[in-house]
Task: structure prediction
Amino acid sequence: MFTKDFYHETGLVLSDRYADVINKEVIPYLQEKEQVTMLNTDGNTELYCAVIPAAEKRGTVVLVHGFTENAYKFAELIFSLHRNGYSVLAYDQRGHGRSSRASGLSDLSVTHVDHFSDYVSDLKAVTDHFLPVLPKPWMVFAHSMGGAVTSLFLENHQEVFAAAVLSSPMIAPNTGVPRRIAHAMALAEVARKKGKEYPPFMKPYSGPEDFGTSCATDRKRFEWYDAVKASNPLFQNSIPSCNWVLESIRVTRRLLAKGAPERIACPVLLFSADQDYSVMPKPQIRFIGRVPKGKRIFVPGSRHEIYRSENDVMIPWWTRVLDFYHNPDAVLKEDS
Result:
C-alpha cells in the first residue's frame, strides 16, 4: 500500500507530494483502523475520540492537541506512532474540531472554555474510559495548550502515565502585552458579560492563512493542513473568547504553584521551540526544573509547532521522541 520512497524509517512523510501522500495513503490507513466514539463527559459535552489499536503491544500514546487544533492535524505523528507499534488514543478537546462547542458563540472560529479545569476533567474522562483496555505502558504526547492541560493532569493524577512528552507547552501564554494588562482587559470583558465574545482586536477565520506568520517552518506540511482547514468549518478554530484568554493567563499560577511540578511522578521530556511567539520560554524552564524526572531540550530552527518543521529539524526531534517512549530513563540520562 505504501510507496516506500515517500517515508522515513520513523514513518514520517518525506515526499515533495506531501499532501497527496497524507490524503491518499496516511489518512485512509488511519481511518480503516480507527475506532471512533463520541464520549459524553459531563452530560453536556461530547468529545470526538479515536482509538487506533496496534497489532504490537508496545504501549499506548495519548495525543493531546493544542489551542485551535484537533486530532486530525496530527495525522502524520499518529501514523508514525502506529507504524512503530504504539496504539494511539487521540481526541478533539472541547470547543475544538468535531467535539461540542459552547452555546452562544458568534462564530465557529471562536474557541471558548468556561474553566480551564474542564479540559483537565475531559482528559481524565478520556483516559478512564479508554485506557483500561489498551496496552501499557500508557504515555502521552501533548502540544502547547495540550501541554498545560497534561501538566495539570500529571500534577494531580500521578498513577496514569509512565512517560510524557510536552512539545512547546503553554506553561504561560505569550499575550503580546504585559500579563497584568492582558488579564485586566480580559477580566473587564468578562465582567461586561462578554466572556464568550472574542477580543475586539482579533478577527474570525476568513480563509487561507499566511505561511510566513505561521507556527510552521515546513511549507508542505503547512499547506496540507491549511487546505484541510479551509475546507472544513469544524476545523476553523482560530481565535479565543475573552474568557479563554482569562483562563489561559490564570493557568500559569496553578502550574507553578508551590509543590505542584514536584508532584509529577513520571519522566517528562519538554521540548522548547527556537522561534516561539505563542508561549513564553522562561516559565517552561522554571516548570521543568522542578519536575523530579524532567528534562528540557531546545530545538534550533523550529517555530512553535515543532511537529511541522522541515525534515532536517523534524526527523531528529521525532526520533528523540520515539527513543524516549522506548526507554524514558535512558533519554533523561543523555547529555542534551
Summary: DSSP finds ten helices and ten strands in the chain. The mean pLDDT is 96.
